[in-house]
Amino acid sequence: VQLVESGGGLVQPGGSLTLSCAASGFTFSGNHMSWYRQAPGEERKLVASVGSATTALVHLDSVKGRFTISIDNEKNTVYLQMNSLKVEDTAVYYCYANWRNLWGQGTQVTVSS
Hints:
Blueprint: E1 2-6, E2 9-11, E3 17-24, E4 33-38, E5 45-50, E6 57-58, E7 67-72, E8 77-82, E9 91-97, E10 102-103, E11 107-111
Parallel strand pairs: 2-11
Antiparallel strand pairs: 1-3, 3-8, 4-5, 4-9, 5-6, 7-8, 9-10, 9-11
């Protein structure tokens, strides 16, 4: 039973990345999934969450209008589309299965010129 994130990397300011989080050993079944991020020296913060296609929410004010969360229950994968990236978006991004209290290993996103 695990979550595996992918899609992180180095991108220039203004660029885009799509993070993926795939579940292994269990299914989402419409349950709540979230993306968090943690920058060096800061606490982990909730970025966005989704329970189904109609309950997708971006919680972090600094990314509203730029980030979108979505879920594909058939593929057991949750996505975080990140556009117009800024240097301050640099962080390790974590996927979290709320109802299982299960974290992924994290994927590094670095925004730098």
